Fold this protein.
Amino acid sequence: MSRDGADLAELVGRARDGQPRAVARLISLVEADSPQLAELARLLGTVPSRAHVVGLTGAPGVGKSTSTSALIGALRSAGRRVGVLAIDPSSPFSGGALLGDRIRMTEHATDPGVFVRSMASRGQLGGLAAAAPQALRVLEAAGCDVVLLETVGVGQSEIEVVGLADTTVVLLAPGMGDGVQAAKAGVLEIADIFVVNKADTAEAGAVGRQLRQLRAMAAPRSDWPVPILHTVATKAEGIAELVAAIGEHREWLAGSGELARRRSVRAASEIEAIALAAVRRRFPADAVAGLAERVQAGELDPYAAADQLLAGLR
Ligand SMILES: Nc1nc2c(ncn2[C@@H]2O[C@H](COP(=O)(O)OP(=O)(O)OP(=O)(O)O)[C@@H](O)[C@H]2O)c(=O)[nH]1
Ligand SMILES: [Mg+2]
């Protein structure tokens, strides 16, 4: 663990040189909500981000990790430097490490142009909103052109992760029971690209048809025509088309002004999360516990208690 600014600057320098251990240590600092994060942000600088952040989401077992691995292969062949951030919002511990381990064990393990890190939610106020953009900046400093954000775990957390991406890829697959069901439950609105994975299985055609029907019924969110692609991630089939669609979406984002809009929304959540965490850190020790006792004893209502807490900050 680096102890002072000089060490941190050295670490950032090594990350910029693309040293995987330095990248790993910086992302660990981010994950651990280190007091050095403000200094880290300063050292990383404020240039506009070049890296394209691509979120992959979908039900468990749909093929996110397999697709991520296939995408890394295709992007590397095209000479791009790739970062992968596996995010597990459901757990305060690194459940996502499983994915990192899996990818590290594949053919990309020794490739110096690939950085794979997993990050758990800090389980705090706006944990991910504050932590993930900073982790993305670290990966970008290390020269990543594309960062793949893979969600681990399910639920409304997927939506939170989507807020971090420039382009959101929603994966469906036959036999997941909830494939198209998930699409009905709001994923339709967040997808920039649909992928029907496991196209080598019998029911893949039916999933594609149902999805096309749903897409036809939904009001278009923008003039971006959301494509439905079919892949066999295990054989990297359809992955070139997916890479092409991701590239086209990136161009559309830039040309339409939507890229700047999405990134402003992301920055707003990040700023709020940082500010709220800073406020929380300034609560006097045990102040909340003391007020809570008075609320439960019926001496104080919770709004008055919150006012007292905030007044104590000034
Ligand atoms: N037949 C077939 N199997 C696939 C395909 N893609 C992935 N699989 C298999 O589906 C299983 C789940 O794939 P993963 O990539 O681990 O899925 P995931 O979405 O990352 O799963 P979680 O991380 O648990 O949510 C594995 O056994 C894969 O080998 C495909 O295109 N066709
Ligand atoms: Mg996975």
User: Anything to note?
Assistant: The pocket of magnesium ion (ligand 2) is lined by residues 64-65, 99, 152 (CB under 6 Å). The chain has a mean pLDDT of 83.
